[in-house]
User: Which sequence fits this backbone?
């Protein structure tokens, strides 16, 4: 004990992993009796196996050629991946779905006035970078699920093209009606930009990558540095995934051979106006030709021009035609059957399709997943047996719209509803900090594991410690620091959308995590031909040490979930999170009201009048009726119930452990079933207002953010849209969902107590 | 009364000037009996006279040719101005001083490695702009008071070249020792940049105008718009004015024929290393050639490059030679003698010398001053007689280093000490908002007058209302708004340096105001050949309506100060300000300590280690000894005394008024003398640490900011420099000064009470 005390005094009290804590880890949450020690042995064996050398070799192979949906190399990769799983002892197969995946037939963008300029729409090869020369196999630069179109109109610059930007345009007295808008990438899912432009009357949409956001403003451009070169283009889907992701023709069901398909014209997730992504090299002449008011300061990028808003005198012609074909997506699915609870599934996924060569996105994540599978296969050979069934999924078709994962979840909806314990996702992987987003019932588990995995760049520091210390380093003020220091666990992010977890958490209500490292390497090759092995090896995690760290973090998470007597869900993390969400809603309501009151005052007292330049147009907003504050008491009561149930489950879980030692594993089955139910309880059959595919009442991507999460989305978005009566109604619905969740947690607590008797 | 109440209900309660308030203005602060009504009559007559047409004509004339110190047109302007004063009935003369004013003999800046490039150092004429063609008369682009030099060295980019930037360089492990630095203009008086570079071991300094700060990033460049074109250069002085301004060879005394002059080598205000300003056109090849780490985000400008810090591989050669001549500066001084208190002087000034044609800077201010003088002359003809002596000063030689005003104040130091009541300055004038900085004993007067002058762009709104409403519009948060709404007066700015008030307030302790309109037009022609009539008439206050507003504001201020029975100084404004300064010092001390503690923690807990990228160099700072908080109790006591004395003066002033009606004017003479003394009491004979010329203990330009004010500078800068023992010592000194000030205010209160009996 003395030694521990001395160490505790020497190393400061903050989040370093002390010897005392290490000793405590012999008690692993969810493992009873001596199962913890055995688990730790197997985990140690597992974590020693993932090999950076293998990951480098795998990346070289999988990213060797363009491998988008429907391409020959994508198919070849799926077969190679299947063979690996099989070689490593997994029960693996390929599941194929046929989905709508448009590809370009004709693309033209030209400035026709006041001068003439034809956009290149072509990324040039880079000397030294071999795969950038594979132009014949590369998908042209385009946005998937743009409609065909042929439009000519004056141009208007709309900044990021998000709702706030249209408010600014209204103040400037500028309409996009009948115009073609040009928006820069960033600050929203890209599909939001044409959607909003259409809602405001625009007839076409151009999206470009401003050098301020991922070009020379950030750092040296490729191949001198990692950032986007002048002609680099971000491809990408503009599917209206905020309505539903996956195949546009088969919402809610797997796009298998028997699926009933919508007619193309009835698909609700295809954009309404033609949209095309371009490089900043192509954007410069267009933006330079704009007149009208000078863009507001936060609208200005890093091009060497004065940014103007327009409309005109720049006039552009945009013509796009696509092949509207069905293409196959090949999900590679591999299983290790559970020894004790085979009907409880722990699922892991990462996609393997890319927009072009896709080394960072997604192969950096895929090779980590493959090394996990190889390593688990190896310890399986050595005698390790997971209690639950483990399913590894190498998804196809993520890039166009989460096609592979969504169709699979829809196809297996009923099974998943009763069997799935959790889904663990990864995607892009890079150098830097552990990032984890997900269901807050898994927050405690994530923290525990993050403290066990060493950071490859920082000797003697775990990835969890590094995460916490970096959060402290980036805290904005002493209050934020104090708050961070007071927290037992680092708070994981909330899941929005943008990768394959979406169908699992948002539609099927399966507890999910999205893991990845990043935040250090930077770069501007996202969805371009330059996201390849040459780039990755020069500017990112070339030695694949963060690939290994990812495999260690995720593999350990899978084992902990699959091997535990009772899955280590922590509902206090969940109830704390829900309490936080409700507090945020209250604050949002207060802020909206205060802003409306303030704006009314600005109008009435002449504050706008005083502070505007009479030589510049400014349109006064209209005064608004200020509503009464919302009544959040139903949510307050629900949070209270949830906190009580979480507390009672936790104490059953904690107290139960010693008494549970001698009880045979099988008696926890009912607990597992109850736990599986708890996450499903967050769903409603009706789903969110206007988008029934999204059934989770706690997390969803925003209807006007796309990637960005909205927690308690039905209430939050009603407030944001100033729909006060709907907000009140949704408060009641969500409160009911949370009360049901509390009941299920109480049931699980009782089951756990019974199991321990 | 009903009508008033109705209006009060209709127009909201905030700062609109109500009828009730207007009625109250019949009582003018400092005017007793019926003197107020007479004053208002004269002021109304005065305010009707200033004519935009005259100002336009005067600007066309005065800015017709380059008119820098020592130029023929500068001389010609002085004579023309003199003739005007005389024509308008003023007792006017020219006072000439001979001062050191270096001009370029040779300028060379070349990139010699890795490629060769010779900087143009020349502003091209602009078609349509006639005066931009007067190249023979234009001063070349240069920084006055750079030494001669011939240096060749690797280049280092130092952002704005202020102290924080050198801290950042230290963290990056980059030294400027033996290097030539390139800094961008902004965030400090330009002389601070070579000074700090020299202190850190650099051997040369280049200063450029980044397009982000006043070029195309801000708006269209000249002649399409008002902003700085690619080859535009900001000339300017780099004299070490934070030590003393004025002639470098005659510190503290007027540079008249008899003055003893220092040898050039002994002058303390000439820079130590050669320094040259350049355009962004010339800067681009230099910055583009830099290697080393990518500049931190807030170091990046708007050039279309990745900003690197260096050092090298860019290597530059800088060679500069100057004519080190004495040149004459011609101050034009005009008087209207006071009728009642001729020995109490109210002084007004604006310079007329420019760097080139100088339309906005300073002719826009000079033409307002001239219209004030003409208008005062006209009402004088009509019978108006100021009680106090009014002195109008058209300064020469402001641009190189406040030469004309400083030498005049030094020459007339003894007279000013006993006679000067206040000094009112202006300089640049532009479109927009009334800006006022100055001695806080004048804050109440400024507010009163600002509410009386209509804003020329905003019908029915005074310039004071517009100022207050714009402050509200720009408030960052509801708390700031609430605070602003609760304030009776808008708070005027604190005076730093940068114009001719400096010798008055900082050296001679004369209550000063600096007035100007601005904040709306913008532009990037400061100190370039493009600051001319063509530019001003197209992009700024072409109709001279803000010229007229300035003349109305300043002329009314002059009349109010010169005509009042007792000058309307308000010491509650002063004592509130001092209380605020002391609170800021306490907060600064607390913040410094908290930052040191936090940084020590960052080092010890590994927060720096966790949050840095191992592929990039980062030098850990050393841990620091954290001091005890300073004892501010002497200042607290002094503030208490000051507030009490201010209150007792104010109640004597308020209560005295009715009783004073019948007392003859002459009996206030002793009050006036006491009041004059109060501002002088803020001086100490020893001045500020290391710079005895600066004697004012309340206001000074910062030793490392140059323009930027430091209030209670001796204490504040000791804290900033972490010199805790000196801070304690200075707290005692300043507390003594404030106690003395309180005593003098009490004496003035007694004198006022006696005068009223």
Assistant:
């Amino acid at each position: 004990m003395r030694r521990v005390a001395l160490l505790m005094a020497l190393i400061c009290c903050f989040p370093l992993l002390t010897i005392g804590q290490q000793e405590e880890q012999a008690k692993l949450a969810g493992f009873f009796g001596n199962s913890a020690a055995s688990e730790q042995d197997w985990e140690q064996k597992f974590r020693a196996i993932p090999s950076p050398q293998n990951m480098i070799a795998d990346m070289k192979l999988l990213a060797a050629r363009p491998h988008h949906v429907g391409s020959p190399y994508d198919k070849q990769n799926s077969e190679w991946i299947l063979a690996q799983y099989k070689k490593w002892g997994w029960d693996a197969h390929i599941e194929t779905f046929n989905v709508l995946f448009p590809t370009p037939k004709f693309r033209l963008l030209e400035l026709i006035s006041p001068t003439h300029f034809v956009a290149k729409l072509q990324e040039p090869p880079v000397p030294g970078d071999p795969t950038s020369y594979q132009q014949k196999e590369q998908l042209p630069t385009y946005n998937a699920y743009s409609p065909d179109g042929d439009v000519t109109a004056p141009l208007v610059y709309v900044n990021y093209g998000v709702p706030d930007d249209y408010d600014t345009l209204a103040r400037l007295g500028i309409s996009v009606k009948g115009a073609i808008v040009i928006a820069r990438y960033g600050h929203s899912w890209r599909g939001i930009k044409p959607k909003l432009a259409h809602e405001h009357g625009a007839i076409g949409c151009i999206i470009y990558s401003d050098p301020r956001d991922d070009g020379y403003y950030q750092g040296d451009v490729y191949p001198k540095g990692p950032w986007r070169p002048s002609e680099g283009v971000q491809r990408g889907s503009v599917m209206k995934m905020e309505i539903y992701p996956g195949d546009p023709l088969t919402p809610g069901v797997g796009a298998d051979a028997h699926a009933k398909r919508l007619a193309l014209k009835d698909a609700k997730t295809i954009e309404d106006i033609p949209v095309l992504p371009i490089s900043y090299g192509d954007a410069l002449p267009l933006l330079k030709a704009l007149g009208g008011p000078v863009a507001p300061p936060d609208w200005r990028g890093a091009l060497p021009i004065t940014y103007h808003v327009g409309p005109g005198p720049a006039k552009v012609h945009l013509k796009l035609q696509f092949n509207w074909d069905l293409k196959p997506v090949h999900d590679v699915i591999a299983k290790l059957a559970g020894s004790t609870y085979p009907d409880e599934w722990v699922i892991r996924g990462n996609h393997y399709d890319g927009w072009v060569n896709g080394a960072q996105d997604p192969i950096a994540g895929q090779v980590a997943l493959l090394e996990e599978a190889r390593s688990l296969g190896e310890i399986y050979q050595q005698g390790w047996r997971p209690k639950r069934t483990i399913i590894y999924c190498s998804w196809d078709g993520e890039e166009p719209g989460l096609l592979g994962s969504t169709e699979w979840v829809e196809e297996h909806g009923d099974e998943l509803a009763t069997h799935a314990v959790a889904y663990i996702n990864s995607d892009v992987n890079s150098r830097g900090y552990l990032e984890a987003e997900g269901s807050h019932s898994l927050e405690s588990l994530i923290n525990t594991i993050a403290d066990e995995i060493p950071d490859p760049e920082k000797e003697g520091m775990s990835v969890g410690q590094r995460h916490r210390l970096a959060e402290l380093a980036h805290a904005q003020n002493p209050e934020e620091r104090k708050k961070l220091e007071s927290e037992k666990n680092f708070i994981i992010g909330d899941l929005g959308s943008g990768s394959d977890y979406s169908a699992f958490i948002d539609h099927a209500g399966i507890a999910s995590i999205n893991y990845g490292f990043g935040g250090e390497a930077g770069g501007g090759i996202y969805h371009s031909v330059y996201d390849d092995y040459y780039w990755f090896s020069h500017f990112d995690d070339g030695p694949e040490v963060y690939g290994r760290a990812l495999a260690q973090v995720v593999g350990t998470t899978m084992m902990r979930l699959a091997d535990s007597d009772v899955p280590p869900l922590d509902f206090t993390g969940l109830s704390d999170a829900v309490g936080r969400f409700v507090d945020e809603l209250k604050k949002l309501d207060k802020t909206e009201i205060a802003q409306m009151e303030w704006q009314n005052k600005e109008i009435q007292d002449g504050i706008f009048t005083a502070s505007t330049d009479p030589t510049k147009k400014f349109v006064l907003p209209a005064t608004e009726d200020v509503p009464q504050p919302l009544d959040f008491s139903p949510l307050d009561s629900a949070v209270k119930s949830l906190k009580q149930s979480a507390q009672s489950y936790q104490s059953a879980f904690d107290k139960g452990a010693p008494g549970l030692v001698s009880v045979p594993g099988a008696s926890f089955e009912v607990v597992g079933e109850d736990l599986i139910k708890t996450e499903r309880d967050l769903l409603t059959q009706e789903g969110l207002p206007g988008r029934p595919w999204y059934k989770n009442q706690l997390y969803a991507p925003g209807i006007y953010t796309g990637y960005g999460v909205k927690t308690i989305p039905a209430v939050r978005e009603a407030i944001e849209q100033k729909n006060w009566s709907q907000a009140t109604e949704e408060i009641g619905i969500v409160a009911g969902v949370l009360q049901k969740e509390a009941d299920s947690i109480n049931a699980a607590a009782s089951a756990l107590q019974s199991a321990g008797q």
Chain B has a mean pLDDT of 93. Chain B has three domains: 2-100+327-563, 103-324, 571-756. The first strand of chain B starts at residue 91 and ends at 100.
